[in-house]
Amino acid sequence: MTTTEVRPAGKAGGPTADSARPVRLWAGRISFRVHRRTGLVSAGALLLAGLLLLVSLRVGAYPVTAPEVARALFYGTGERLAVHFVNQERLPQALLAILVGCALGISGAIFQSVSRNALASPDVIGFNSGAATGAIVVIVTFGGAAASVAAGAIAGGLVTALVVSLLASRGGLHGIRLVLIGLGVTAMLGSVNSYLLTRSSLNDAQNAHIWLVGTLNGRGWSSVQTMAVALVLLLPLALLFGRRLRMMELGDDLATGLGVRVNRSRLALTVLGIGLCGVAVASAGPVPFIALAAPQIAVMVSRSPGVSLISAGAVGAGLLSAAHLASSQFFTALVGIDRRIGWIDVVEESQRNNLLPVGVTTAVLGGVYLAWVLFKRRGSGAA
User: End-to-end CA distance of the chain, in Å?
Assistant: First the structure.
């Protein structure tokens, strides 16, 4: 099994530099090139995420009509339950799905490009598991306030990344070695997480267990604010280093010849990728599949010469929004709940939605995606 490297620009089967158009901002002080098809894919994925958000505001165990959604959003008026479901439950969860999906997609694109391996996503090489371990330690020890859980997740991801990188970098950082060591670290961290759950109280263990699956149920505006602040701080830096990332995909020697400080850039990109996946894990738990598939789907659809951080983030937002809508509607369609009146329905809907966290849906989709990739590449010797 050999590593799968990201195809550099100009190779057969991918667009050349002529297909990219320059974009200049602030009187030409900042400029970058954008492939037209990549831009269209990014815009389409974000449009799909927005449409799914609007649909998710209407449907559910308590259906809300379009006029009621508009009144609740813009005026905060209408039927009491409709206002509650739209503004306090469905809107923050739908927004969080977009933000978390974007963060995971960009994080996956960073790690896959740095390692030049399509399997080197945070959920495969152990960074998500490390972030989950850090968050569980905070939940079990300190009770799990939102800010402390986020800090614990980021710290756990950083420590895991340091360990995996040290073990995988002996003799040079190779993608397949990074994946294999990451899988081993993931297995060990899974045992650590199980042990922490056995040593915690029943209430903390139950909360942590539900969170470990990866879910958006019960998330409110505080989680949305945390994710939004993280993206505002980390996304511009990731896009700034993304220009160097394209040159690093050509190889360390060529990137150095082009003026890129490879080691420093790789370290900065790794920290940014860990920060993005750490905050995402703290907000929604270790949601699988998104960081693995979003960058590759973006490359496949846009036919770009390499992984684009913008398109990977947009596709990740669309994927997680679709998975969230499917998860929230599956049991609703199964039990066929009618519209009723009373605050007890708030509890009943939350309990039913908790039956299928979004992480379960993404894990199923991830298994199907991996099976399809392996079937497509059968006999090629590539992984």
Answer: 6
Predicted confidence (pLDDT) at residue 50 exceeds the cutoff of 90: yes
CA 69, 74, 77, 80 torsion-angle sign: positive
Within 10 A of 16 (CB to CB), how many other CB atoms are there? 11
Counting other chains too, the contacts that 295-301 makes at CB distance below 8 Å and 24 or more residues apart are 295/105, 295/108, 295/109, 295/112, 295/113, 295/121, 296/112, 296/118, 296/373, 298/38, 298/41, 298/42, 298/45, 298/105, 298/109, 299/6, 301/41
∠ CA 49-284-204, nearest 5°, is 155
Alpha helix ranges (H) inside the chain: 36-58, 66-74, 80-84, 91-115, 127-142, 146-168, 175-198, 202-213, 221-248, 252-257, 262-284, 290-302, 309-335, 344-353, 358-376
Phi, psi of 22 (to 5 degrees): -75, 140
Beta bridge partners of 25: 30
How is residue 248 annotated by DSSP? Answer: H
Q: Name every residue whose Cβ is closer than 8 Å to that of residue 290 and which is 6 or more positions away in sequence.
A: 100, 101, 104, 105, 108, 316, 319, 320, 323, 362
Query: What pTM, to 2 d.p., does this model score?
Result: 0.82
Angstrom distance (rounded) from CA 57 to CA 160: 38
Q: Which amino acid is at 338?
A: D
Kindly state the tokens that stand for 274: 């860990």
Q: In this structure, are strands 20-25 and 30-35 parallel, antiparallel, or unpaired?
A: antiparallel
Collapse the DSSP code of 280 into the 3-class scheme (helix H, G, I; strand E, B; otherwise coil) and give the result: helix
- What is the secondary structure of 175-207 as a DSSP string? HHHHHHHHHHHHHHHHHHHHHHHHTS-HHHHHH
Q: Give yes or no for a contact between 338 and 264, defined as CB atoms under 8 angstroms apart.
A: no
- Of 96 and 301, the structure prediction assigns the larger pLDDT to 96
* 173 vs 164: CA distance, rounded Å: 11
Nearest to 313, CA basis, from 354, 272, 351: 272
Short-list 118, 128, 103, 96, CA closest to 314: 103
pLDDT digits (tens, 9 = 90+) for 321-380: 999 988 877 755 554 444 444 444 444 444 444 457 888 888 888 778 777 777 776 655
* 56-89 pLDDT tens trace: 888 877 788 888 888 888 888 778 888 888 888 8
Q: What is the C-alpha separation between 340 and 139, in angstroms, rounded?
A: 36
